[in-house]
# Entry
Amino acid sequence: MPDLIDLSSRIIDGTSNESGSRVTLECSEVADGISVVESFSNVVSVRTDEGLVMFDTSLATFADQVLGALRGWSPDPVHTIVYTHGHVDHVGGAAAVLAEAERRGQRRPQVIAHEAVPERFARYRLTKGYNGWINARQFGGTGLTGPGSEDPDSTPTHFPSRFVEPDETYEHTLELAVGGEPMVLHHGRGETDDHTWTWLPDRRALAIGDLFIWCFPNAGNPQKVQRFPAEWAVALRRMLTLRPELLLPAHGLPIAGEDRIALVLGDVATALESLVTQTLDAMNTGASLDTVVASVSLDPDLLDRPWLAPVYDEPEFVIRNIWRQYGGWYDGRPSRLKPAPDAALSAEWAELAGGVDAVVARADALCDAGGDVNLRLACHLIDAACLADPDHLGAAASAAAIYKVRRSHERSLMARGIFGHAAAKAAWHAGTESKDAP
# Structure
């Protein structure tokens, strides 16, 4: 089992090109009395005289393995569970933790979270089906189907509707002392509106959930509710004033050393601050969303750092999310305020072009020419062709091929998932053979 602190140090110091993101389901002690189970998401545990304090519980799917790994480190009962936020990969294993305590005849662990977590659970129950479709696209669109395969839209990913509700919530901060271990819970909006980061003053340690994830921050996700990039940066800057010596994220390796922590958190804050400032500056000039997206950029050196690679979310999505937060959904183009139905507009474009075959041919040519703008145009045109004539098998086949190429040019999981799903859906309609996407 590798030394997690040594591994993260070597990555940050530039002596290792390994990934900082791992899911091994192994438990490692990273400091005296502090362990991390590397899961999706991580489970951080702190040993106290009254029992363990767990930060998050991972997915329900991994709960038994997480508990098994944890029990290899400590047999102590779980005294408290702190939800860093209400995403299912952080709260899903709580029921298993409570069931274990009941089997062992121990007191029920108390569950603590920010006051917005129960509101999130209520929203999840209202949007169970929608979240299933989102996850099918975001995480399931990694390959392409062939003829005879099931329609990619026929079976959404299962999404839970039952959760272990917190026993205690707080608004801004909450000071706890469990078994002589002081800890201060802080609310900080970032990836979510219900995020908690916790300061362990005696250990100079931070348990911060998804406020650092070893890749570009998840501040723009195109299929999810509002993210808060400016507030995220504020929370990170506030953490740095505490001069932490141990960072315990919920995704990826723990980090030790004040200088290393200052570097990675400072980089994330800088990237978010830059996107917010540039976007708002452009909005304040009256620029359209299209102009804003085209004009805002980040220093490429930032995106080359192993803790800021845009392999999950990406800057373009964050720019659009900043626009949504501060400017609403109207993008500045009056034709899109109350647009014609997509199918009607597509049929009109196809007629002007001389028919669907002409649109498909142009889309294919643009895809073959390559380049970012050409691929974007090819996707617009092939969408129009498919909408203008949903029964046109040639358009569907081209759509499958074009979106497969588009996916291969993307870095972020979100873009790759959506484009992969589009390719699979088009291949299913066309009944064409298609190998797994690269």
